[in-house]
Write a structure and sequence with these properties.
single chain, about 280 residues, alpha+beta, five-stranded antiparallel beta sheet, 16 strands, about 25% helix
Length: about 280
C-alpha cells in the first residue's frame, strides 16, 4: 500500500508543474520571449462581407392568419382582378415597438406581441408577410419590399436595398402599366455598381425628390383610394416593380391593399462593403 500511495502523491505534485511549464514562453535565438504556436493559421483574417446568424422565421398562428386574410366582401369585390397573373389582396397591420406586455386587443384577437412586427411587412417576391428570412443568414438582408407604420408606406428599409415609391392618386389599378406617367421614372432606375453609389442613392431616396411633376421617395403617407407604385432593388435578391392600391382602412389601424406586379427585373448585384 505504501509504495502505491507514494507514487500517487508524486503524480499529484508533478502534474500542476507540468501544466505551468507548457505555458512558459520559449526563448528565441535573439533572447526575446515568444509564445509557442497554437496550431492556428497565423495569416490575418479577411474582412467579411456579411455577418450571418441563425434566424427563425416567424410563424403566424391560425388565429393570426385569419387576421391577415382580407374580408370576404373584398375578396368577392376584386375576384375578377385577382384572376389576373401576379396579383394579390392583403392586409397589413401598423408597425409598433415590441412590447413585453400583451394588450387587451391582442388577448381578444389571440395574437402575440410580435405579430405586428411581422404583419406590417410584405414581400412581393416571396408572396408572404414578414421578412422572408430563415436559417443561417444575415438578418439585415430581408426580402420584404413594403412596410406599413406611423401612417406611412416604406420601401428600401432592409440592408443593401434601395426603394422608391410614387403616388398616382385615384388611378384605377388595372390601368397602370410600366409606361404610365409617373411610373416611367421608376423603370429608368439602374442598379448601382457598388456600395458607395448605393449609399448615395439611398440618401437621395430618403430625402425624396421630384421628377416630371411627381414626388418620389422611400416613404409616402397612406391615403385611402390611392394607387402607388414602388420599385424595390435588393442586392443579390430581387428587383421588382409593383403597383398597389389602398382599398380599405380599418378603424383599428390595419389597411387592405390590392396589388399587381408590373415587372420583374434581373437579380441585381453590386459590390458589397467589407466589414472590418
Amino acid at each position: 500500500m505504501f509504495p502505491k500511495t507514494l507514487i500517487l502523491l508524486v503524480l499529484l505534485i508533478l502534474t500542476p508543474a507540468r501544466s505551468v511549464r507548457c505555458q512558459v514562453p520559449s526563448d528565441d535565438p535573439n533572447g526575446s520571449a515568444t509564445w509557442p504556436r497554437t496550431g492556428r493559421n497565423d495569416q490575418p483574417r479577411q474582412p467579411l462581407a456579411r455577418r450571418s446568424v441563425w434566424v427563425f422565421e416567424y410563424r403566424f398562428t391560425s388565429e393570426e392568419k385569419r387576421l391577415l386574410a382580407p374580408s370576404r366582401t373584398d375578396q368577392q369585390r376584386y375576384a375578377s382582378f385577382l384572376e389576373l397573373g401576379d396579383t394579390g389582396l392583403i392586409r397589413l397591420y401598423p408597425w409598433h415597438h415590441r412590447r413585453s406586455v400583451v394588450s387587451i386587443d391582442e388577448l381578444i384577437d389571440r395574437r402575440s406581441p410580435e405579430f405586428n412586427a411581422h404583419a406590417c411587412l410584405y414581400s412581393f417576391s416571396k408572396i408572404r408577410h414578414g421578412n422572408g428570412l430563415n436559417g443561417f443568414v444575415d438578418p439585415r438582408l430581408g426580402w420584404a419590399e413594403l412596410k406599413f407604420g406611423e401612417g406611412k408606406f416604406f420601401t428600401g428599409f432592409t440592408g443593401e436595398s434601395l426603394g422608391v415609391i410614387v403616388a398616382l392618386g385615384d388611378t384605377p389599378l388595372e390601368t397602370v402599366t410600366p409606361d404610365t406617367e409617373g411610373v416611367s421614372g421608376l423603370t429608368r432606375i439602374i442598379p448601382p455598381a457598388d456600395y458607395l453609389e448605393a449609399s448615395a442613392l439611398s440618401k437621395r431616396n430618403r430625402s425624396g425628390f421630384e421628377m416630371d411633376r411627381f414626388r418620389y421617395g422611400s416613404s409616402l403617407p397612406v391615403v385611402a383610394n390611392t394607387t402607388y407604385v414602388l420599385r424595390s432593388t435588393s442586392n443579390r435578391r430581387a428587383d421588382v416593380l409593383v403597383a398597389f392600391r389602398v382599398v380599405g382602412v380599418a378603424g383599428d389601424g390595419d389597411v387592405t391593399i390590392l396589388w399587381r406586379k408590373l415587372k420583374t427585373y434581373p437579380k441585381p448585384s453590386w459590390k458589397r462593403r467589407e466589414i472590418e
